[in-house]
Write a structure and sequence with these properties.
alpha+beta; 13% helix
């Protein structure tokens, strides 16, 4: 596995800023959208899966969802754009989306949180 190339951090903060800007300009597009051409063979690649609406990271030859907080659903049928795999939470529940929004099917499930 090839280690990622990161800008050096040194005593010269201005030079570090220029290096960071250059690094981001070259690599930021990799964080935008996961496509069918992206290969998860290299661990640690972070991408945005636009079709599933969550961030993924490559690990052990597969893209795995990163837990990112989605908007808490106001109803179990969800809203336009909701897709299976989305996760949301508030102070009382954890919500998991189990299907794609169609306007009538209950696609969000929730589990109550409790102290222990």
């Amino acid at each position: 596995m090839v280690a990622p190339v990161l800008p050096p951090i040194g005593d010269d903060i201005k030079a570090w800023g220029v290096s960071l800007s250059t690094y981001l300009r070259r690599n930021l597009t990799r964080f935008y959208h996961k496509t069918t051409d992206d290969n998860p063979s290299e661990d640690g690649i972070v991408l945005w899966d636009a079709s599933k609406k969550y961030a993924v990271i490559s690990l052990d030859g597969a893209f795995r969802q990163m837990a990112t907080r989605q908007a808490t659903p106001s109803a179990n049928t969800g809203a336009s754009g909701d897709v299976a795999g989305m996760i949301a939470w508030d102070t009382n529940y954890i919500y998991i989306c189990t299907g794609s929004y169609d306007g009538s099917t209950a696609i969000w499930k929730r589990v109550a949180l409790s102290t222990w």
